[in-house]
C-alpha cells in the first residue's frame, strides 16, 4: 500500500479484513529488501528545491478519455458529423462555453482554468497514460511503465526529507489509476496507500486505522520482525543507516495504525449530511469528498479514478461505438460527474485550501471529434443490445482538454484552443512535459534540475522536455 505499509506493492483496503492486513501489510515490512531500505536514505541532493509551505495535489482521473467536444470544448458549427447533440451554454467566464452537460461547473468556471490545448503523440491507453503521467515519449503500448509517474516521484522526493511527522501517508489513492503507470525503478515502496471499494457503501471501512486497543497494538508490534531480519544481513553493511530507514517505516506504520487523527481523516460519517449530499451520495461523490478530507488532514498526493458502473456498461470513459452509445454515455455519467467535481472545487475555495491544494481533472486523451458508428457488443447502461448500430468516438491525443483549480493560480480563464472541428491543438499547445512540470512546480519540486537514478544507476530527469505553464503557476 505504498511507502507506509506494504513494500511489495499496493494493498486495496476497502474490502481487506483485519487478519489479512496484519498478515500481508506487516509481512511486507518484514520482507523489505535491503535495496528498498537503502533507497530511502539515498542522497538528499536529488530532492531539488521545495517551498517551505506544504502543498498538495488532487488528481481526478477519467480512465479512457473524456470527449472534449461534448464537454469543455464544444464545436457547434462543425456540423452534425462532429458536433454531437449537446447545446453549448455560457459559463461565468466571458468567451468560455461548456456543453449543457456541465451546468454546475459552468456556474463556477470563475474558480477554474480550462486548458483546451493538450496534445500527446500516443493513441493507446497504456502509452497515453504513460506519456501524460510519466513523460515517457514512447508511442507503443508497453505492459509496464519505463519511468515512474509523477505521484511516485513526489512520494520519493518527500521521503528524502526525513521522517514524516504526519501519521497519514504522503500518497493515497482512492480507487486510483494504477493499470498503466506506477513507480517503475523507484520500487513499490513509493506506490500509494490504496483504498478500494465504494466509499458511499454503508459497509465501507478502512480496517485497522486508528486502533485504540492497547493489547492489539502490542500484538502488532510483536509481529514485526524487521530487527531480526536486519541482524542476518552481512556485517559489512552500514547497519545504523539501514536501521534508521526502518525506524522511519515502523514509526509511520504504527502512527497510521494507532493515531486517532488517521481514524478521523478517513471517517466520512463525520461530514454533515448536507455536505455528503452536495457531493452526491454515490461512489464518485464520496471519493472526491474523501479526497478533500485527506488532503485537508495532510496527505500530499491524492489520486482517484472515476470509473466503474457510473461510467456505463464498460466501466470507463472509453466511448467507442462497440462499447457505448457515446451520447447516451455522456448523458448517463455527466450529472454525477458534474456534481462531484463542482462540489470539490467549491470546497477547496470555501475551506481556504485554494492556495495549498491544486486540483487537476484529466484523462489520458480526448475522443475523436468525428463521430463514427459500429455495432454494439452488448446491452447495458449507455449501450444498445448487441448488434445495434450506435455512435461512438475513438481515442484522440491530438487535442483535448483538462481543468485546473486551486493551487494559488489565477482562475476564471481558458488557455489555448483547438481548430474549428476540435481535431488539433493550434494555440498554446501543451505537452506531457508541460503538464508534469506544472504539477511539480506547484509542489515545490525543482523539475528542471532533479534527476533520479534508474535501474542501471543512470541519473534520469523527472521532466525531460517541458516547462510549467505560466497561467497555471502562482
Topology diagram in text:
Elements: H1 18-30, H2 34-40, E1 56-62, E2 88-90, E3 97-99, H3 103-107, E4 113-118, H4 125-134, H5 150-159, E5 171-174, E6 193-195, H6 214-223, H7 226-231, H8 239-258, H9 260-266, H10 273-279, H11 283-296, E7 301-305, H12 326-350, E8 357-363, E9 366-367, E10 372-375, E11 389-392, E12 395-396, E13 400-406, E14 413-415, E15 417-418, E16 425-427, H13 432-443, E17 451-453, E18 459-461
Parallel strand pairs: 1-7, 1-8, 4-14, 5-6, 5-7
Antiparallel strand pairs: 2-3, 4-13, 8-13, 9-12, 10-11, 15-16, 17-18
Helix pairs in contact: 2-8, 4-13, 10-11, 11-12
Offer a concise description of the structure.
The protein is α/β, with parallel strands linked by helices. It is built from 13 helices and 18 strands. It has a single domain, classed as Alkaline Phosphatase, subunit A, CATH 3.40.720.
Describe the structure.
31% of the residues lie in helices and 15% in strands. With 474 residues, it is an alpha/beta fold. The chain has a single domain, classed as Alkaline Phosphatase, subunit A (3-Layer(aba) Sandwich), CATH 3.40.720. Strand 15 (417-418) and strand 16 form a beta hairpin. The model is unreliable at 1-52 and 222-246 (pLDDT under 50).
Amino acid at each position: 500500500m505504498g511507502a507506509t505499509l506494504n513494500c511489495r506493492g499496493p494493498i486495496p483496503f476497502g474490502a481487506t479484513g483485519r487478519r489479512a492486513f496484519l498478515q500481508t501489510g506487516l509481512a511486507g515490512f518484514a520482507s523489505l529488501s535491503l535495496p528498498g531500505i537503502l533507497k530511502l536514505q539515498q542522497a538528499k541532493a536529488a530532492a531539488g528545491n521545495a517551498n517551505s509551505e506544504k502543498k498538495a495535489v488532487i488528481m481526478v482521473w477519467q480512465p479512457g478519455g473524456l470527449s472534449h467536444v461534448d464537454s469543455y470544448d464544444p464545436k457547434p458549427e462543425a456540423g452534425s458529423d462532429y458536433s454531437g447533440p449537446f447545446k453549448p451554454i455560457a459559463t461565468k467566464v466571458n468567451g468560455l462555453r461548456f456543453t449543457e452537460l456541465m451546468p454546475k461547473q459552468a456556474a463556477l468556471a470563475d474558480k477554474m482554468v480550462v486548458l483546451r490545448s493538450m496534445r500527446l503523440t500516443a493513441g493507446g491507453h497504456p502509452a497515453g497514460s504513460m506519456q501524460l503521467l510519466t513523460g515517457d515519449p514512447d508511442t507503443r503500448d508497453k505492459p509496464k511503465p519505463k519511468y515512474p509517474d509523477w505521484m511516485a516521484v513526489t512520494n520519493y522526493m518527500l521521503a528524502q526529507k526525513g521522517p514524516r511527522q504526519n501519521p497519514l501517508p504522503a500518497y493515497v489513492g482512492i480507487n486510483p489509476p494504477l493499470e498503466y503507470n506506477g513507480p517503475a525503478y523507484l520500487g513499490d515502496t513509493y506506490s500509494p496507500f490504496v483504498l478500494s471499494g465504494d466509499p458511499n457503501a454503508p459497509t465501507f471501512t478502512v480496517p485497522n486505522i486508528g486502533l485504540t486497543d492497547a493489547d492489539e497494538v502490542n500484538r502488532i508490534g510483536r509481529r514485526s520482525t524487521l530487527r531480526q531480519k536486519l541482524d542476518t544481513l552481512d556485517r559489512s553493511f552500514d547497519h545504523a543507516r539501514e536501521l534508521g530507514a526502518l525506524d522511519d517505516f515502523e514509526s509511520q506504520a504504527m502512527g497510521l495504525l494507532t493515531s486517532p487523527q488517521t481514524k478521523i481523516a478517513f471517517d466520512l460519517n463525520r461530514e454533515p449530511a448536507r455536505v455528503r449530499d452536495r457531493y452526491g451520495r454515490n461512489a464518485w461523490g464520496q471519493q472526491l469528498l474523501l479526497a478533500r478530507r485527506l488532503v485537508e488532514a495532510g496527505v500530499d498526493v491524492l489520486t482517484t479514478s472515476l470509473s466503474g458502473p457510473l461510467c456505463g456498461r464498460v466501466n470507463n470513459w472509453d466511448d467507442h461505438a462497440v462499447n457505448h452509445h457515446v451520447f447516451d454515455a455522456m448523458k448517463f455519467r455527466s450529472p454525477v460527474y458534474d456534481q462531484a467535481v463542482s462540489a470539490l472545487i467549491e470546497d477547496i475555495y470555501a475551506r481556504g485550501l485554494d492556495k495549498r491544494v491544486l486540483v487537476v481533472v484529466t484523462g489520458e486523451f480526448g475522443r475523436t471529434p468525428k463521430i463514427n458508428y459500429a455495432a454494439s457488443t452488448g446491452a447495458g447502461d449507455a449501450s444498445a443490445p448487441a448488434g445495434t448500430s450506435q455512435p461512438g468516438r475513438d481515442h484522440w491525443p491530438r487535442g483535448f482538454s483538462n481543468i485546473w483549480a486551486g493551487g494559488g493560480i489565477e482562475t476564471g480563464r481558458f488557455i489555448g484552443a483547438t481548430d474549428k472541428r476540435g481535431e488539433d491543438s493550434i494555440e498554446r499547445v501543451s505537452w506531457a512535459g508541460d503538464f508534469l512540470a506544472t504539477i511539480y512546480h506547484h509542489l515545490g519540486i525543482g523539475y528542471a534540475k532533479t534527476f533520479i537514478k534508474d535501474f542501471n544507476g543512470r541519473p534520469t530527469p523527472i521532466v525531460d522536455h517541458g516547462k510549467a505553464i505560466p497561467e497555471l503557476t502562482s
